[in-house]
């Protein structure tokens, strides 16, 4: 079943918007929980996608990355977090950073449930075939966002987690990479190395979610290839 461009946009739009919005809102919510009100005061602890969308990172770069490297790569407006305001800045940084990837994992599990539900109901109600496609895209998009953000490159969440876990001296040295982080990611993207790094984690995560919900990963990947 080959989808039209409009259908593909309709299928991807909802999962991508949720993946970006809840990821960023989760950072702000957890930062607020641990004492930093910066994101809350800026109105970024919100489910409104317009508060988080970045024209370049959320729209232009993802389209280019799919065309050039066959991988979904992008970002939203970073949620402002003043780590100095956290009750235990170095330790609490871990939870603020981890909130984003964890939110994507939770969403991937939710979309897996939707996919499984759609598979069960579609034979008796063909109108629910869309739920199968949206569920598959939701799993795929959120697993990609989770894997990408767990890369140990500041300012990605994985880099923040590393800074939190490393001893103080090593953490300070590692944090200096942040000024080059964006350049490193773009270089990885356009050399094709980013896909080689991420695909094993993406595949393993999808297989684990499939095992949990009784979903055959081969069926899921076959469906995604039609998009």
Low-confidence runs (pLDDT<50, min 5 residues)? none
DSSP helix fraction? over 70%
How many strands? 0
Order of helices and strands: HHHHHHHHHH
Oligomer: single chain
The fraction of residues in strands falls at: under 5%
Quick one: biggest sheet?
A: none
Principal-axes geometry comes out as globular
Q: How would you classify the helix and strand content by structural class?
A: mainly alpha
Mean pLDDT equals 87
Please give the radius of gyration in angstroms.
18 Å
Number of helices: 10
Q: Tell me the span between the first and last alpha carbons.
A: 9 Å
Report on this model:
There is one protein chain. With 227 residues, the protein is an all-alpha fold. The protein contains ten helices and no strands. The mean pLDDT is 87. The longest helix has 33 residues, at 89-121. Helices cover 71% and strands 0% of the residues.
Concise overview:
It is built from ten helices and no strands. With 227 residues, it is mainly alpha-helical.
Task: List its traits.
single chain, 227 residues, mainly alpha
Outline the fold blueprint.
Layout: H1 5-33, H2 38-41, H3 55-69, H4 89-121, H5 129-149, H6 157-165, H7 168-175, H8 178-190, H9 193-213, H10 217-224
Helix pairs in contact: 1-4, 1-5, 4-5, 4-6, 5-9, 6-7
């Amino acid at each position: 079943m080959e989808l039209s461009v409009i259908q593909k946009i309709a299928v991807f739009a909802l999962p991508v918007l949720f993946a970006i919005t809840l990821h960023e809102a989760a950072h702000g919510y957890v930062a607020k929980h641990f004492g930093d009100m910066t994101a809350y005061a800026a109105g970024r602890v919100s489910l409104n996608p317009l508060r988080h969308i970045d024209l370049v990172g959320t729209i232009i770069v993802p389209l280019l990355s799919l065309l050039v490297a066959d991988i979904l790569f992008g970002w939203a407006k970073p949620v402002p977090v003043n780590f100095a305001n956290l009750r235990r800045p170095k330790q609490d940084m871990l939870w603020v950073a981890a909130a984003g990837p964890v939110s994507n994992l939770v969403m991937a599990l939710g979309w897996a449930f939707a996919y499984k539900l759609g598979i069960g109901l579609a034979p008796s109600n063909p109108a629910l075939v869309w739920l199968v496609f949206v569920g598959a895209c939701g799993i795929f998009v959120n697993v990609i966002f989770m894997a990408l953000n767990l890369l140990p490159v500041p300012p990605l969440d994985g880099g923040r987690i590393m800074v939190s876990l490393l001893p103080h001296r090593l953490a300070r040295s590692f944090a200096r990479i942040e000024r080059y982080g964006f350049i490193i990611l773009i270089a990885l993207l356009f050399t094709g190395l980013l896909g080689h790094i991420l695909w094993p984690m993406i595949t393993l995560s999808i297989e684990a979610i499939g095992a949990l919900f009784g979903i055959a990963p081969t069926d899921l990947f076959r469906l995604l290839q039609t998009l």
